[in-house]
Amino acid sequence: VVGFIDVPVTGDRTIEATETFFLKITPPAAAPLTAGTVGIATILNDDATVNQPAISVSSYAVAEGDYMAFTVTMDQTSAATVTVNYRFLTGNGLGTAPDYNTSWSGDMGEIRQLIFTPGQTTQTVKIYAPGDSIDEVDQNLTMELFDPTNAELAGGGPALRSMGIVLDGDGSGSNLAVLVGSPIVYEGDSGTRMARFEVRLSQPHTAALSLAYTTVDGSAVAGQDYTATSGTLTLVAGQVVGYVDVPVTGDRTIEATEFFSLKVTPPAAAPSTAGTVGIATILNDDATIDQPAISVSSYGVLEGDYMAFTVTLDQPSAASVTVNYRFLTG
Length: 330
Prior knowledge:
Elements: E1 19-24, E2 38-43, E3 54-57, E4 61-63, E5 66-74, E6 82-90, H1 102-105, E7 112-116, E8 122-129, E9 139-149, E10 152-153, E11 159-167, E12 178-180, E13 184-186, E14 192-201, E15 209-217, E16 230-235, E17 241-249, E18 258-265, E19 277-283, E20 294-296, E21 311-313
Parallel strand pairs: 3-10, 4-11, 13-19
Antiparallel strand pairs: 1-2, 3-5, 5-8, 6-7, 6-9, 9-11, 12-14, 14-17, 15-16, 15-18, 18-19, 20-21
């Protein structure tokens, strides 16, 4: 009842759109109906990692009650259309009461997509930072880019995050805040990779600041999943950003996503603890190593009956396995 025809597909390194071709079967006299005798082969482009553009995003500060503009840039043009998903993540107070209003909540967390047409290298995304009459420390939000097509994220990670600062305009005195980013990193199969924490002042300070920091276990454990790290980060007068790198240990174990934190002790010049803890996300990337293979059975039933498809793993997995499915017309 079944046979197979193999058609060679020619590989190349050109970034291009999905392509299709057909296989047409001439029906025999015993089954003369032509319906269903043409199959469509779909050739997916897999050249995204070859000389592809790198996507980066800028960040800067605005006053509350104004629009914040993030500039998303590719380092070179592309002959193919480039897409990248993005969303905004809450920071130290933004997106939560009392700053959580209709204008803001409609944007936070919603996944949207940027489209770069061939030759285009820059896009601007604006988000409104609502104002209030509360005297408070400066606040932040994060723009996250992920799932690019026909391009990669600068740094080669699974997601790219950029912190935007909203400066408080109420009351008097300093509203200086210390804000810590939350990186995402693949663990790797061996050796170490760096989880880079962005440590940012909301605005320049007139004197040097020394910021003590230390890592804190979450589901990721120091000595097993990452290297415990502590020390002091010094920002000279006028410097607004520095970085703390924490080694993440690679392995070949299929496991759940893990987390650990970097806690920064705020200085006297910026005593608020809001925003001073960043959470690193370690994504498992061992799915291609000894992973189960999924297969599906097919068979015939009488019309008016239920058809059951059996989906099978060829071996058990220590991790949860998911797969999407859909039915297509014949």
